[in-house]
C-alpha cells in the first residue's frame, strides 16, 4: 500500500487509497439532499469525510473502503471530500496493519505479563478472584480497545492500558514499599475489564457504540457486580471482595467523572492516579505524534487545551543570542 498517511494530509491535496471506517451515517442537509458523514482512519489518525451523493449507502463501521477525493478545510479542520468510494475486494491486497491502530505489543505478550503478575500474588483470595475474572473476559481482551476515541483507542488497547499501568504501579511501589502490592496490581488488572461489556467493539478494535448495559450502568457498576458474582462462585467474602469493589467504584476519583466514592485507602488512591496518568500520556503521545517539532495542536477537547510538540533537537544545540 503506497498512499499518504492521514497525519501527513494537507489542505487542497488529492488522495486515493484505502481507509478504515470508524463511523458512518447518512444525513440530510439543509436543502433536503442526503449525504454521507464518515470518519475514516489509518494507523496514524482520523479524518472526517463527506460523500455528497444521496444514493451511496453508508459502509459499516469496522470495514475498509477505497476512496478517491480531495482535502479541504472546514471550520478550521481538515476534511476529505470523497468523489468515489467502494468496498475492498480480495484483489486489493490491503495491509490491515497500516490502517488499524494496534497496541505496540502482541496480545499474547501482554497477557503473559498480566498472568505472571497474578501468579506472584501472595493473597490467595485476590489471586483466585482476579484469575477467574480474567478467564471470563479473556476472549474479548485479545482485541478490545480501552475507549471509543479518547485513549488507547486501538486494537488490544485495553491490554496496552493495563500493562502500562502495571509498569507505573511497580515504579510507585519502589517509592512507597509499604503499599500492598497484591491489592494495587489487582485493582489495575480488573478496573476496566467491564469495558468489554460497556462498549460494542469489532475484532479490529473499532467501537461502534456503547451497549445497553454500558449506557444504563457503566463499567464501574458492572465491575462491582462481576467481582461479587465471582466471589460468590468461589465462596470468598469479606475484606478482599469489598476492597476490590471499592477500587472499582472509586478509580475515576470524583463524582463528576462517574465515581460515587472517592478513594478511601492508599492503594485505591494510587490506582486512580496511575489510571489517569497512563490515559493522559497515551492521549498526549497520540496527538503529539501527528505534529512537527515546534508546532501546536488543535484544541484537544478531552484535555481542554492545545498541545505543543517540543523541539527536543534544539535542546542539544548551543543557542546564541
User: What's the helix-strand series?
Assistant: EEEEEHHHHHEEHHHHH
Q: Describe the sheet with the most strands.
A: 5 strands, mixed, barrel
What is the residue-mean pLDDT, rounded to a whole number? Answer: 92
The first-to-last residue Cα distance is 47 Å
Uncertain residue ranges = none
DSSP strand tally: 7
Could you describe the 3D structure shown?
It is a single chain. The chain is of the alpha+beta class and 321 residues long. Helices cover 39% and strands 19% of the residues. Strands 1-2-3-5-4 form a five-stranded mixed barrel. A two-stranded antiparallel ribbon has the order 6-7. β4 and β5 form a beta hairpin. α2 packs parallel to α4, α3 packs antiparallel against α4 and α3 packs across α9. It is globular, with a radius of gyration of 22 Å. The mean pLDDT is 92.
Summarize it.
The chain is α+β, with helices and mostly antiparallel strands and 321 residues long. It is built from ten helices and seven strands.
Secondary structure layout:
Layout: E1 14-28, E2 34-42, E3 45-51, E4 64-74, E5 77-87, H1 107-119, H2 124-141, H3 157-175, H4 181-190, H5 195-198, E6 199-201, E7 207-210, H6 212-216, H7 218-234, H8 239-250, H9 266-288, H10 312-316
Parallel strand pairs: 3-5
Antiparallel strand pairs: 1-2, 1-4, 2-3, 4-5, 6-7
Helix pairs in contact: 1-2, 1-3, 2-4, 2-7, 3-4, 3-9, 4-8, 4-9, 7-8, 8-9
Amino acid at each position: 500500500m503506497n498512499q499518504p498517511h492521514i497525519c501527513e494530509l494537507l489542505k487542497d491535496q488529492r488522495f486515493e487509497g484505502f481507509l478504515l471506517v470508524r463511523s458512518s451515517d447518512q444525513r440530510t442537509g439543509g436543502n433536503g439532499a442526503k449525504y454521507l458523514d464518515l470518519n475514516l482512519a489509518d494507523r496514524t489518525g482520523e479524518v472526517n469525510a463527506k460523500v455528497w451523493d444521496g444514493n451511496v449507502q453508508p459502509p459499516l463501521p469496522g470495514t475498509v473502503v477505497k476512496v478517491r477525493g480531495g482535502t479541504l478545510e472546514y471550520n478550521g479542520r481538515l476534511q476529505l471530500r470523497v468523489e468515489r468510494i467502494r468496498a475492498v475486494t480480495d484483489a486489493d491486497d490491503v495491509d490491515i496493519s497500516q490502517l488499524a491502530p494496534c497496541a505496540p505489543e502482541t496480545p499474547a505478550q501482554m497477557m503473559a505479563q498480566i498472568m505472571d503478575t497474578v501468579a506472584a500474588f501472595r493473597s490467595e483470595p485476590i489471586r483466585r478472584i482476579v484469575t477467574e475474572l480474567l478467564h471470563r473476559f479473556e476472549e474479548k481482551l485479545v482485541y478490545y480497545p480501552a475507549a471509543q476515541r479518547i485513549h488507547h483507542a486501538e486494537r488490544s488497547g485495553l491490554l496496552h492500558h493495563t500493562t502500562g499501568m502495571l509498569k507505573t504501579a511497580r515504579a510507585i511501589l519502589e517509592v512507597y514499599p509499604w503499599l500492598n502490592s497484591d491489592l494495587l496490581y489487582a485493582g489495575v488488572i480488573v478496573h476496566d475489564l467491564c469495558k468489554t461489556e460497556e462498549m460494542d467493539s469489532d475484532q479490529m478494535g473499532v467501537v461502534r457504540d456503547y451497549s445497553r448495559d454500558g449506557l444504563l450502568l457503566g463499567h464501574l457498576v458492572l465491575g462491582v457486580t462481576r467481582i461479587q458474582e465471582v466471589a460468590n462462585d468461589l465462596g470468598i467474602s469479606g475484606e478482599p471482595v469489598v476492597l476490590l469493589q471499592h477500587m472499582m467504584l472509586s478509580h475515576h476519583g470524583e463524582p463528576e467523572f462517574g465515581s460515587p466514592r472517592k478513594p478511601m485507602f492508599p492503594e485505591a488512591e494510587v490506582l486512580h492516579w496511575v489510571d489517569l496518568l497512563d490515559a493522559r500520556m497515551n492521549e498526549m503521545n497520540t496527538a503529539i505524534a501527528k505534529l512537527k517539532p515546534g508546532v501546536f495542536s488543535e484544541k484537544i477537547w478531552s484535555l481542554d487545551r492545545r498541545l505543543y510538540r517540543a523541539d527536543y533537537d534544539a535542546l542539544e544545540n548551543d543557542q546564541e543570542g
